[in-house]
Specification:
Length: about 450
């Protein structure tokens, strides 16, 4: 891409997401932050003032008492983003929504509505749901198996994209003199009949300025990576090192090329935590102190159950070898569970040691003085480990230090924007507007018709 720049997303989890059991004790965080629209407005305005590309709202459909504080009591993403749309002008609004426990028509309509409310700034993080307990909230005896989840997910996205093409751009002439509101030749029923869905259409909402919502995807399994390479325009991931980031980046882009896609039309944005201090040493102290303050062994032990379909690990002897329970994760977050089991086996860890290993404070790549953090973010970007960053808004003072002290350095180097280029999310991410399939077909047919006429 010419003039390639770092893309920035903001991920807010109010009173604390996974591993942040006591973040809510920060005096700058209201106890009701996760359900306070005022809190979200404050955070998204800070991100927009720093010219971030998007704000990302995560979601799930199932909780237990061991769920992180934010998960226990949070606003529904589409409702929240619709409210944020009217108090912002440029920043993208991305919501996680599951393909396992929604229907394409309703989801496409909700996103289509956000598209028009925001003027073309919506995005959809496509997930197939790893919380197996969600099945019980949607009249199912058990969660979908892995292969079914991803096959259903792909078909779901294709149906939604078809529904977003229901109206062509010129479908509503709104000609008062001719008393003509709709041009019916520009309205199209989908009539989809597939393995998982039957959807007639058309969708009862018109096309937006960016054509369709931007499709994001997060998943590190083989099925997840393949789905991302097939339909993803933005990829949410995690990378513990630049080498891991480079390996994922090259693999995902290669898969996309193999599918006939332009790899520059896929934006890889891992989630990261940033710690900024006056000096590198001070930043590391801040990082350690905040991590220690936010964590708790018993809470971490309970939360360990989530990737294993909320299996109860409290029933085991903490000082015995890590239990053989991988089979329970088959319908959960299987890839994450496999990594935990592999770690325990490779190191010979007990259950206690495993919990400590995955929850204890550890240095992150992006901690230091503003200059050091900017240098490291530049290195990862220029060495093709990513296209951008999803910055976790954890402790408010740290996010402000990032926007006030690190972003200006990156801007001075030409690595992030000075001003928004567009009023749409696609425009700011540098992604093409997908042409309506019916308009495209009509255009492709026109030369053939002209040729017949000429003869």
């Amino acid at each position: 891409m010419s003039n390639r720049q770092i893309k920035l997303g903001a991920v807010t989890m109010g009173v604390g997401g996974p591993g942040q059991h006591y973040q809510w004790l920060d005096p700058e965080i209201p106890g009701d932050a996760s359900v306070s629209i005022g809190w979200y407005i404050e955070q998204v305005r800070l991100a927009e003032a720093a010219r971030f590309d998007l704000v990302f709202i995560v979601d799930s459909q199932f909780i237990t008492p061991d769920s992180p504080p934010h998960y226990l009591n949070r606003l529904e993403p589409m409702t929240l983003l619709s409210a944020l749309a009217v108090v912002t002008r440029h920043i993208g609004l991305v919501a996680t929504m599951t393909t396992s426990y929604n229907d394409p028509f309703n989801l496409a309509r909700r996103l289509g509505s956000l598209e028009l409310i925001s003027g073309g700034r919506s995005g959809w993080n496509v997930v197939t749901s790893g919380d197996a307990g969600a099945a019980g909230n949607f009249s199912r005896d058990e969660h979908y198996d892995y292969d079914t989840r991803y096959a259903r997910g792909l078909e779901f996205v294709r149906v939604a994209q078809g529904l977003w093409d229901s109206y062509e751009a010129d479908a509503f002439p709104r000609d008062g003199q001719a008393r003509r509101f709709l041009d019916p030749s520009r309205l199209h029923a989908l009539n989809h009949k597939g393995e998982h869905f039957q959807v007639a259409g058309p969708l009862n909402i018109s096309r937006s300025p960016q054509g369709q919502p931007v499709i994001f995807q997060a998943g590190d399994s083989e099925q997840g990576r393949d789905l991302g390479a097939t339909i993803g325009e933005g990829i949410f991931t995690h990378a513990a090192s630049i080498e891991q980031g480079q390996a994922f980046y090259s693999d995902l882009k290669a898969r996309a090329i193999a599918k006939g896609r332009n790899p520059d039309h896929i934006i890889v944005m891992p989630g990261v935590r940033v710690f900024v201090g006056d000096t590198d040493a001070q930043a590391r102290e801040i990082e350690h102190d905040l991590q220690v303050a936010d964590q708790d062994f018993d809470r971490a032990l309970g939360e360990l159950g989530r990737p294993f379909a909320w299996h109860d690990f409290r029933q085991y002897d903490l000082d015995a070898p890590f239990p053989d329970v991988l089979h329970v994760a088959e319908r959960g977050f299987r890839t994450q569970a496999e990594k935990i089991v592999q770690l325990a086996r490779d190191q010979g860890y007990t259950l206690r040691q495993t919990v400590e290993a995955i929850s204890s404070p550890r240095p992150t790549p992006f901690a230091g003085s503003p200059e050091t953090v900017a240098d490291e973010m530049q290195r990862w970007f220029e060495e093709r480990a990513l296209d951008g960053y999803n910055i976790h808004i954890g402790h408010p003072s740290q996010f402000r230090r990032f926007t006030d002290e690190v972003v200006p350095i990156l801007r001075e180097r030409g690595l992030v924007r000075a001003e928004y280029e567009s009023s749409t999310l696609r425009g700011n991410l540098g992604l093409p507007v997908p042409e309506n399939r019916y308009t495209e077909a009509r255009r492709d047919e026109a030369p053939a018709a002209d040729l017949i006429t000429a003869r």
